[in-house]
Amino acid sequence: MVPRLKQYYKDKVTKLLKERFGYKNPMEIPRLDKIVINMGLGTLSDGGKENKIIDDAVKEISIITGQKPVVTRARKSIAGFKLREGATIGCMVTLRGERMYEFFDRLVNLALPRVRDFRGVSPQAFDGNGNFTLGLREHTIFPEIEYGQVEKVKGMNITIVTTAKNDEESKGLLKDMGMPFRGR
Fold first, then answer.
1. CATH superfamily of 4-175
2. How does pLDDT run across 93-114, given as a tens digit for each residue?
């Protein structure tokens, strides 16, 4: 079974992008490459509670994405942040293929509309190479997470990596796929 958004990309988005940017070769048309979800937990010094916080974050991010995340650790010690080398500071997951399209579909159509006072995502969050990063303050906007089960609300960064050459092409791709950008 092909994800709904992947089929929509093949049927409609490729034609729209080909017309708008005048691509000659079908391999030039930008597409989603991967989505990286990072949940940073900061320095954990709750005196024994850090394992529970990490386990909860891993469980919740795996429920949201359908894939087990990698626990990230500090590369070097920073005394000002009370951070030691090797200390756990978060977890991340990289989605590709079918899971990536399923997640993007749920993000755009279910999760983002549940954000309080949502007026669209910032069109300024591109990096110059066609990648888009979105920061969420609450992971509870995803319908898979039961709010009553959550001990601590955590934020996350979602980076959408595309094969676009520049920000304009990437924005066109994401807009055609349903990303609600703030209008100006």
1. Ribosomal protein L5 (3.30.1440.10)
2. 999 999 999 999 999 998 888 8
Task: Find tokens 């990289």 and name the residue.
Answer: 94
What gap in Å lies between CA 90 and CA 39, rounded to an integer? 6
How do the domains of the chain map onto residue ranges?
4-175
Question: 184 falls in which pLDDT band (50, 70, 90)?
Answer: low
In the β-sheet with 88-95, what is the strand arrangement from edge to edge? 70-73, 88-95, 32-40, 156-162, 132-136
Reading the block at residue 122, the tokens are 């910032």
pTM of this structure = 0.87
Which residue shows structure tokens 């791709």?
173
Identify the DSSP state of 46.
S
pLDDT digits (tens, 9 = 90+) for 120-158: 888 888 988 889 999 988 887 887 887 777 777 888 899
CA–CA gap between residue 109 and residue 117 (Å, rounded): 16
d(CA 124, CA 126): 6
